[in-house]
From TrEMBL:
A Pfam family: TerD
Start and end residues of each TerD domain: 22-151, 171-344
Annotated protein name in UniProt: Stress protein
Length: 357
């Protein structure tokens, strides 16, 4: 697996193990859709090795056993955290995550790269979507210690709890709305909306062949309910120059992000009230045929992932209104929308976006 990749799970009983050159501790957080624990029992670690459907394994390589069918229905995510058992940071060393089934067969492997002075990393998430579970490679290095990370999810540590926000990667369900300052400790000036997906292989007369899926990320700029500009594959820069598109990816080839839209929030004209992000399927391929599609919001200054949502769920639609960044009281907020539409070109989304302004 590579960072950002999402894989559907076909078995309920799994073991997550981590191999690293230095001693590490594994822990797990059972989270609601809001990214919070229900109570202290949802933090599984060396002093509390058992949770609902999650168990810390002792002896040998650090590991966590999951019985997904036993996880309570109000738990939407299981977050696996790796922390160094000693001073210092990862300093470029790469922890290797392996996910195996109950018989010991390796199902997924993920090398968490790009870590520097961080001593804690959110390695992978297990995300629930209705009756199904998905594995997501996160690889988000946390700048503070384990105590602050778990307090940010609502766990009381040392008699203190953090405010009801999480400063780090947040999984957003459709309809969730939060201030950008709530998912980042300082005010954001540059954000990037990234889109990723994988090519699809279909059976043809000569065997399997790749079906070229062309998804397009676009940004619509609004003053109130009036559209004033559009950034997409045929217009890669906004008129004021403060929103830029990385260019058209026609197939989904390549790992990680396939298309990126950068938004300089600090320099956008003060009249702009909202930037709405939409995704369309140029050739009319419906989303039910698309593999591992996701969008994510990234801090443009440090490239830390702030929020993400998966474009899974299929459906016979060719577009989606994924999110909007909008001003409220002088501050920027993010709303995850995640609503399917029928559109092969960003112009076709305009009438369908109006109800989300």
């Amino acid at each position: 697996m590579t960072k950002g990749r999402v894989e559907p799970l076909t078995v309920d009983d799994l073991v997550v193990a981590v191999r690293h050159s230095a001693p590490v501790d594994l822990s797990a957080l059972l989270l609601t859709a809001a990214g919070r624990v229900r109570d202290a029992k949802d933090f599984v670690f060396y002093n509390q090795p058992d949770g609902a459907g999650v168990r810390l394994m002792h002896g040998g390589q650090p590991g966590i056993a999951l019985a997904l069918a036993a996880i309570p229905p109000d738990v939407a995510h299981v977050r696996i955290v790796v922390s160094l058992d000693g001073p210092g940071g990862f300093d470029g060393a790469v922890p290797e995550v392996r996910v195996s089934d109950a018989t010991g067969n390796t199902r997924y492997e993920y090398a968490v790269e790009g870590l520097h002075d961080e001593s804690v990393v959110i390695a992978v998430d297990f995300d629930r979507d209705g009756p199904r579970w998905y594995l997501r490679a996160v690889g988000h290095g946390y700048p503070a210690d384990l105590g602050e990370l778990v307090r940010g999810h609502g766990v009381e540590v040392g008699g203190q709890t953090m405010p009801d926000v999480y400063h780090g990667t947040t999984v957003l369900d459709p309809g969730q709305d939060l201030a950008l300052s709530d998912i980042r400790k300082s005010e954001l000036s540059l954000v990037k909306m990234a889109l990723g997906w994988d090519p699809v292989r279909v059976q043809g007369p000569k065997g399997l062949r790749e079906l070229e899926i062309d998804l397009d990320a676009s940004a619509l700029l609004y003053v109130g309910d009036q559209l004033v500009d559009t950034v997409y594959y045929q217009q890669l820069t906004s008129k004021d120059g403060h929103i830029r598109h990385s260019g058209d990816n026609l197939t989904g080839e390549g790992t990680g992000d396939n298309e990126v839209i950068s938004v300089d929030l600090a320099r956008l004209p003060s009249a702009v009230t909202a930037v709405v992000f939409v995704i369309t399927s140029y050739a009319g391929h419906t989303f039910e045929r698309i593999n591992n599609a996701f969008w994510r919001l990234v801090d443009g200054a440090g490239n830390a992932e702030l929020a993400r949502s998966n474009l899974r769920g299929g459906g016979a639609h060719t577009g989606m209104v994924v999110a909007k960044v909008y001003r409220e009281g002088g501050a920027w907020r993010l709303q995850s929308i995640g609503q399917p539409i029928q559109a092969g070109h960003p112009v076709e989304t305009i009438s369908q976006v109006a109800s989300y302004l």
